[in-house]
Design brief:
984 residues; alpha+beta; Rossmann fold; OB fold (Dihydrolipoamide Acetyltransferase, E2P); 5 domains; globular
Length: 984
């Protein structure tokens, strides 16, 4: 039977449209339960022995997913109208709901109510689509209840009190989520904690079905109400409001920045009141304050209480930040590697100058994590009453950029020493904190596995096992090269070449190998051989879809989260020594001056002669007694690499630096035994040059053949303001840096030396690196050719080709290059401009997340290393503040604050003097000179300038809310020497 359903819909532009939906009604739509005699056995999914069946409405599906995902919730009917409505409203929620429906264990059955003759309903006059869908769900619930009468109770689960009332009038039992748990599932104690809070405004007061505590209508409004979407859009059009993403200062969560093209620079948000319930990552509308109220970021290290213009971290968690308008929170006490956002550092440099300052007037797009935030419960004060029953408690996220979240739980006592995941549900204007709900427990605070899980969740790293469908795409082991492989079109037999790989210690996913050999004409054949992953990873397969979503392999200190299954990454595609493997190879003919005479791309088969570590390759290069073919090849390659490196530098390529850290790990406990800066050798640079050469050659080839749909990688030229931190620091010590071009900057960095201080140049390069923008993947059709530039490499065009085992970007480029060689057709994904743009965005996001997870893993293991030891070390001042310093410890790659005045907790680490001297210094005031980058005590006894050497004591403290922190304290050079003598 055919039927048209009509209703009107208002578009985003305010236009009214008539929507007509065609429906083909059938009688053979199954109910999914064996209790229905007419339902075919193949459609049975619901259990005949369940205590009841649940039918959920759209709001439950959208807002109670954590609740629905709990193992106790089974035998659920999901009407097709619900599935479709969720798909249109929230793609992330839709994917989670689809996963529940696909799970055999959960027994969620999709009922096609819109196509069943007995459950399809027509829209009534004046009825909104939402009201019509709610009625359709009630009709479907009644159909189930009538069909299974006497054999199974059917319950409509809805938090909408109006829908519950109508259902009861229609003879259907309806109940809210919280009441359902209390009345029917008292056995599942966690479930009530997982009911999302504050998502519905129509709750019955006595039921609290939203899971939120009962709120008084007379509560004081703490924050300004947000403007409506139409008001925000009008304000942006008229230039009154400015749109951008909020970045909350990692050092001080009471300061945020919104990048605005309309203003031309970042807008400062000073204090939670001006952030107005916006959180890091939200897209917000900002109104500028009068220029008389503009200010600069705080000139002090946070954590100094009200003296810095705001409350301490502890004060905030007590709910006192209604008065907060400025800085004042525990600092991010240490950092390994560059900070999250170079532009935030750039803003810190101009603290003396005022900048545009504003307040949030509306939220355009929320960036709340659907999977929740990691953290722990706020410890009760010493005089607090014991927690019993349902308690309203504060949850403290591990990441200080996020505010405390108020949740209701019945497990508070047992959860105090645990890491939890909590999701945010709402943030009313009368609530100091956002409201949320408990999701799950990760483990005991401080446990290494638990804290590693926190790192992965916080950075949205997918650790789910690969599905059977993905594993089915992997060839069975043992795998070997066959004659069929050699006979593939475009496949060249390269097994005779002296190929070897050079990688870090312990590398199992070897995706690149190298060779060089002399040619009869006096030139060299230089080859880079990359694992031919796309031979096994077919477009559109389950493995390809999964790899595209993951986008990259994530490397932690002791763990690797693969983009592809291990049999592929560690065996079939890994270019292991002595094994025949398939490759995609780039072969150049170069002369003795490393000038390219010709370039050839080919699919190949190689047999690597050796899988070397960097140290092994370096020792071969350096040992004149070794004259074997592989060693001679390495020496020649190293000679050519030095020429290539010098030529890149002449073009303006930057030789930057970052504080990379490596750990020595105990093989039994897997705890770090030692930590230190990673030492780069010539062998590392040799491999780097070969990979860069291959990436540039491939970029030129694909962009030439496919100018509008190639995947490339660009490094935008940094805005002049981003160089302000290093320019200011350099000027303070009499150093001039020319940042007008990458070449002039490279020359300036080469000249930035102090004969008496060999580490000075590296520190300048590290600080310069932090001024850079992020390199990004992009579609060539989205930018003009002059915007393809990779600033850091001084290359007009660049891409990623050399790591397809660990990066999906390289997989995409391999397919493009195969199309260039006419070995494969151009992938359909490359023909879809919007799809390619979305793919590039995902690559950038996942690449960034993997970077942050790697750094967080280093931070975690650094904490573990220093947990039971106190260490003394040399340090360098990288930033001066009115009450302290930011220092960098070269030996350990650690950067963090040291205080020259007492901290908010009463402790003082105020300098390298005796205790009496320390007290005097702590009590004296300090004067900050931004221009000279110095901080001096008023009596002149203590003076520090940027780049100055100093010495620190390093140890771990248990911070507020179970936040372990690495603490740096200034000590004298004499104390450092004494400590070193004791160790010796």
């Amino acid at each position: 039977m055919h039927h048209n359903n009509q209703f009107v819909k208002k578009t985003k532009k305010g236009q009214i449209r008539k929507v007509v939906r065609e429906h083909y009604l059938r009688d053979d739509i199954w109910s999914g339960t064996p209790l229905d005699e007419e339902c075919e056995a193949s459609a049975h999914k619901l259990s005949a022995s369940a205590s009841h069946y649940l039918v959920i409405d759209t709001n439950i599906a959208l807002h109670q997913l954590d609740f629905l995902e709990h193992p106790a919730i089974t035998d659920v009917v999901v009407c097709s109208v619900v599935l479709e409505e969720v798909r249109h409203k929230n793609s992330a929620a839709y994917q989670r709901l689809r996963a529940l429906c696909a799970s055999d264990a959960k027994r969620f059955y999709v009922f096609a109510n819109e196509h069943h003759r007995e459950t399809f309903i027509k829209s009534e006059a004046g009825e909104s689509p939402n009201d019509r869908n709610d009625r359709a769900i009630r009709v479907a619930t009644k159909w189930y209840a009538d069909r299974l009468a006497g054999r199974m109770e059917v319950i409509l689960l809805t938090n909408d009190s109006g829908s519950r009332r109508l259902a009861e009038e229609e003879g259907v039992r309806a109940i809210g989520a919280a009441s359902y748990v209390r009345l029917l599932r008292p056995d599942a104690t966690e479930l009530l904690d997982m009911v999302a809070a504050g998502t519905v405004v129509e709750e019955d007061p006595e039921e609290e079905d939203g899971g939120a505590p009962v709120r008084s209508a007379k509560r004081k409004r703490i924050y300004e109400e947000h403007k409506t979407f139409s008001e925000v859009q009008a304000g942006i059009r008229e230039g009154r409001f400015h749109q951008g993403a909020l970045r909350v200062n990692r050092y001080n969560p009471y300061e945020g920045y919104v990048g605005s093209d309309s203003v031309g620079q970042d807008i400062l948000l000073a204090g939670r009141s001006h952030m107005n319930r916006a959180m890091d990552g939200d897209i917000v509308a900002v109104e500028l304050l009068p220029e008389s109220e503009w200010r600069g970021p705080s000139s002090k290290l946070p954590g100094q209480g009200k003296a810095t213009g705001g409350g301490s971290d502890a004060a905030e968690e007590e709910g006192n930040e209604e008065e907060d308008v400025g800085a004042g929170a525990e600092p991010e006490v240490f950092q390994v590697g560059p900070p999250d956002d170079p532009s935030v550092l750039a803003q810190r440099a101009g603290e003396e100058a005022k900048q545009p300052t504003g307040r949030v007037v509306g939220i355009i797009s929320r960036n709340w994590r659907s999977r929740g935030y990691c953290g722990s419960l706020k410890p009760p004060s010493a005089h607090a009453r014991p927690l019993h029953g349902a308690s309203n408690v504060l949850f403290l996220p591990v990441e200080r950029r996020y505010p405390a979240i108020r949740i209701q739980t019945r497990q508070a006592d047992s959860l105090m020493d645990k890491r939890l995941v909590v999701a945010i549900d709402s943030w009313p204007s009368d609530s100091t904190h956002p409201l949320g709900h408990y999701v799950r427990t990760l483990g005991t605070i401080g446990d290494k596995d638990t804290e590693t899980e926190v790192v992965l969740i916080e950075n949205d790293i997918n650790t789910s096992p690969f599905t059977p469908a993905v594993h089915e795409c992997v060839p069975t082991l043992p795998w070997r090269v066959t004659e069929d492989h050699l006979a593939q079109p475009g496949r060249t037999d390269l097994r005779h070449l002296p190929v070897c790989s050079v990688d870090p210690p312990g590398c199992k996913d070897i995706d690149d190998a190298l060779h060089v050999r002399p040619l009869p004409n006096g030139n060299y054949e230089l080859g880079v051989h990359i694992a031919d992953v796309t031979n096994f990873l077919r477009p559109g397969s389950a493995m390809d879809v999964e790899a595209a979503a993951r986008a990259t392999t994530t490397y932690l200190v002791q763990r690797r989260i693969d983009m592809l299954p291990k049999p592929l990454t560690e065996d079939i595609c890994s270019l292991r020594g002595g094994e025949e493997r398939l490759t995609f190879s780039v072969l150049w003919e170069v002369n003795d001056n490393a000038e390219i005479q010709s370039t050839k791309f080919t699919k190949g088969v190689i047999k690597s002669r050796a899988a070397l570590q960097y140290a092994e390759a370096q020792s071969r290069i350096d040992d004149p007694r070794l004259q074997d073919e592989i060693t001679l090849s390495l020496r020649t390659m190293n000679k050519l690499a030095k020429i290539l490196r010098r030529r890149r530098a002449e073009r303006g390529a930057l030789q930057l630096a970052s504080p990379e850290v490596k750990f020595t790990i105990d093989t039994e406990t897997h705890d770090p035994l030692d930590v230190g800066m990673y030492q780069v050798q010539e062998a590392n640079q040799m491999v780097e040059e070969m990979m860069l050469l291959a990436n540039v050659s491939v970029a030129e080839a694909i962009a030439h053949h496919f100018p509008s749909c190639s995947l490339l990688r660009r490094h935008p030229v940094p805005a002049p303001r981003q160089f302000e931190p290093i320019l200011q620091a350099a000027a303070a010590v009499g150093l001039t840096l020319d940042v007008s071009t990458s070449k002039s900057l490279a020359e300036s960095l080469d000249a930035a030396v102090r004969p008496e201080d060999p580490y000075f140049n590296k520190l300048v390069r590290i600080l310069s690196t932090r001024c850079m923008t992020q390199a990004l993947y992009f579609c060539s059709g989205d930018h003009a050719p002059h915007e393809f530039l990779h600033y850091g490499l001084a290359s007009p065009i660049y891409t990623h080709f050399t790591s397809p085992i660990r990066r999906y970007a390289d997989v995409m480029v391999h397919r493009l290059l195969a199309a260039v060689l006419q070995l494969e057709s151009l992938p359909e994904t490359a023909r879809d401009r919007e799809g390619l743009r979305a793919g590039a965005d995902n690559l950038n996001k996942r690449h960034r997340n993997a970077q942050l997870a790697g750094r967080a893993s280093v931070e975690l293991h650094t904490l573990i290393f220093f947990k039971d030891r106190t260490v003394h070390a040399d340090a360098r001042v990288t930033k001066v503040k009115a009450n302290g310093l930011i220092v960098f410890v070269p030996k350990y790659g650690i950067e963090g604050p040291v205080y020259l005045t007492p901290r908010a907790d009463g402790n003082s680490n105020s300098g390298p003097s005796s205790s009496s001297n320390n007290k005097a210094v702590a009590e004296s005031a300090f004067v900050l000179d931004e221009k000279k980058q110095t901080v001096v005590s008023r009596d002149g006894s203590v003076r520090y300038r940027v780049f100055d050497p100093c010495a620190v004591r390093i140890h771990v403290e248990e911070g507020y809310g179970h936040r372990r922190q690495l603490v740096l304290e200034l000590i004298s050079r004499e104390q450092l020497q004494e400590a070193e003598q004791m160790v010796a």
